[in-house]
Amino acid sequence: MFQIFSRYGKVLKIVTFTRNNSFQVLIQYPDVVTAQSAKLSLDGQNVYNSCCTLRIEYSKLTNLNVKYNNDKSRDYTNPSLPNGESGLDGVIPDQLLPQLLLTGTNSPVALQAARRSLSQSDHTRISAPGMLASPFTPLALNSPLAASYAGSPVSGLPIGGFTLPGTGANSALGAGPLRLASQVPGTCVLLISNLNEEMVTPDALFTLFGVYGDVLRVKILYNKKDSALIQMAEPAQAHLAMTHMDKLRLFGKQMRVMPSKHQIVQMPKEGQPDAGLTKDYTNSPLHRFKKPGSKNYQNIYPPSATLHLSNIPASVSEEEMKQAFEETGFTVKGFKFFPKDRRMALIQLGSVDEAVSALVKMHNFQLSEQSHLRVSFSKSNIQPDGSPFNNIN
């Protein structure tokens, strides 16, 4: 588990346990964005061929309080813990935090059969779709993945008889012929191409990519205005944005999003032609994630035709909200205030493409003298008959 999940960020703690005849694992990352990146990349993947499918959910624990470093639990930030029985305490429920809960239903018999199958297989074969790259060769956890924990007990931790390809003693991290299909890029900068150069602006890209992380700088290329560079605050945020935005249609064109070779977006030098195509948003008041523990971390969802609206003044009616969207050129298919909080609502548009454009144009829309609309993608839909929401918390 450490080797697999370290590909997506620094793993702080791991606790394993069995509940309802199911082997489960809790993994703690430093922050929610890294945890979500790992979840998006690994949920549904198989550790072995047709066996040990990772089912990943967010844990409600605020922190893993690990008492012992052994084969059941480990705190990689505290190598001096004794070797005893693992345990959890000091937990606070009902919060979305940087822990992931892994569950599965595979039996020990199936696991043993999978290992036998792997040991008899051709070690040059590429793994099937939906399966983590194989083969898994026996190795204690002393690969470069553990380099940041030098001197801790992790270097001698047996990890169930397998390691990821390309992570052995003679390999650079991720350098093997087989590697996970999706990895956190080492840069905060994304390269966006195939943009609608007649309509796209730095502010539009700041607003859209800001749904998945804090955008620091945007640069539309002066000599290639259908391409842009976007600098996010953290590599995990860049990966999250790339996961959701690649091949998404913006203003009628399908964007391509990939990691850039650049580490930062340079501002234009004095006298250099730019035409306002490069903007620095470092001090923007519109960042969604600068506040530690922000509830915005709990509301990151893939693009959808339904938008979540918040910061609605009590004086604004449903008709006024719908009219604001329709006057901007959008088709409103449904609208519903939250039953317990009229400051929030869902609005359903004609398509995902239309919702993407609406988010760009309506986020920060001024509703009153002191209120600006906040817009994000929703996980819920409005029932066709206008009845209460699906899956609303």
TrEMBL record:
<dbReference type="GO" id="GO:0005634">
    <property type="term" value="C:nucleus"/>
</dbReference>
<dbReference type="Pfam" id="PF13893">
    <property type="entry name" value="RRM_5"/>
</dbReference>
<dbReference type="InterPro" id="IPR006536">
    <property type="entry name" value="HnRNP-L/PTB"/>
</dbReference>
<feature type="domain" description="RRM">
    <location>
        <begin position="305"/>
        <end position="380"/>
    </location>
</feature>
<dbReference type="InterPro" id="IPR000504">
    <property type="entry name" value="RRM_dom"/>
</dbReference>
<dbReference type="InterPro" id="IPR035979">
    <property type="entry name" value="RBD_domain_sf"/>
</dbReference>
<dbReference type="InterPro" id="IPR055204">
    <property type="entry name" value="HNRNPL_RRM"/>
</dbReference>
<feature type="domain" description="RRM">
    <location>
        <begin position="188"/>
        <end position="262"/>
    </location>
</feature>
<protein>
    <recommendedName>
        <fullName>RRM domain-containing protein</fullName>
    </recommendedName>
</protein>
<dbReference type="Pfam" id="PF22976">
    <property type="entry name" value="RRM_10"/>
</dbReference>
<dbReference type="GO" id="GO:0006397">
    <property type="term" value="P:mRNA processing"/>
</dbReference>
<dbReference type="GO" id="GO:0003723">
    <property type="term" value="F:RNA binding"/>
</dbReference>
<keyword id="KW-0694">RNA-binding</keyword>
<dbReference type="InterPro" id="IPR012677">
    <property type="entry name" value="Nucleotide-bd_a/b_plait_sf"/>
</dbReference>
